[in-house]
Amino acid sequence: MIRKDTITEPTHTIPVVARSDVLIVGGGPAGVSAAINAARHGASTCLIEQSGALGGMATTGLMSHWTGATKGGFYEEILDKSIDCFKEDGKVLGTWQTINTEKLKKVFFDMALETGVRLRLHTLACAPVMEGDMITGVVAESKSGREAFMARIVVDATGDGDIAARAGVPFCAGREVDGQMQPATLMFKVGGVDIARAVFPGSFESNLAIPAGLIQDLGKQHLAPPAGHVLLYPSTLPGVVTVNMTNCPGIDGTKTEDLTHAEIECTAQIGPIVSFLQKFVPGFETCYHLTSATTVGIRETRHFDGEYTLTGEDILAAKVFDDWVVPNVHFNFDIHHLAGAGLDPTGMQKTFPQHKPYTIPYRCLVPKNIDNLLLAGRNISGTHVAHSSFRVMPICVNTGQAAGIAAALCVKHGVSPRRLDHRLLQAILKELGVFP
After folding, report:
1. Tens digits of per-residue pLDDT, 403-428?
2. N or C: the chain end with fewer CB closer than 10 Å?
């Protein structure tokens, strides 16, 4: 028997199944936003998504709430249409930021279809279609086989920037000095919680006093590493709490073998975490594992080189760029420990010194080297530290809004994203009530 380390795939013809002005790759918060906003501004738009729902971490990822203090933009429209608090004993529980994942799935479908976005779910984008340094479409795989989706402008909203990387956009993987990335988490929910007695530590520094001791200290003492922190959030359903406590450091979310390990590791942590909650945390004595996210959550992978790279110093200076397209952004440096549980030594939450909003410039959405491509979401151009702030979902939504409108303007004016006058985009954003 002759062992071969490679095989040669025979040449075959790939059918073009869609042609559109704008193609959005990835249907998470940034991708949904980009697609809807491109369509609203006159571009025929197609969105391809690998799962069976829209929303990414906001829905299939079972995220508990919208994080950050971003104001204005498409994010607020999503909130208006999806807010869902519940009442118990006459009291409203949860906040406007709390996510009902099932309601949000329907909201995203409705908004996309109302604007005429063509959806292709269960479809994995796997390669760019290139003409020199210009992207002209994407090849995808699905139950229907290998197919091509052609477009005048492509927006990569995959989170990991899979298409941008394969098209040749330069990038840095993880932290600049050593390539380490923030850990992965599998979100899950528990039911049977006595909400009236429950406590909800919402940050690593929320070390609440409970009868058995300080809650974060108890987590470190009784949960086996790499778990160890306690993060609990109310849901929009009575007796149901969202748990953000599984932890898997040391993985690369662009590698399937690492993703497989993270799914297995995080799933194994759920049972001990539930037992910990039952034993130590008030209100959780009879809680039970209700459901888990359908995919492990990845916080960080590739950081692309754009026409401008946002830095932590820009954020600390609350910089307002001339070519701003996402204004009124605020969040801390939310860096989960790169080697264990809790906050990384380089992260800042309660100690974050900047309380003024910053802006994200259009140039962060425009990658170097490749034309007719835009970035949206956590894969826009920024450093490891800056990314820890703009990676959260509300900010991703508004980078998606900017990318979608920019893509439609590029089609309208017959220019590449690199040559688009950012003032045209700013004028539309101002009409929508978005100002720095």
Report:
1. 999 999 999 999 999 999 999 999 99
2. N
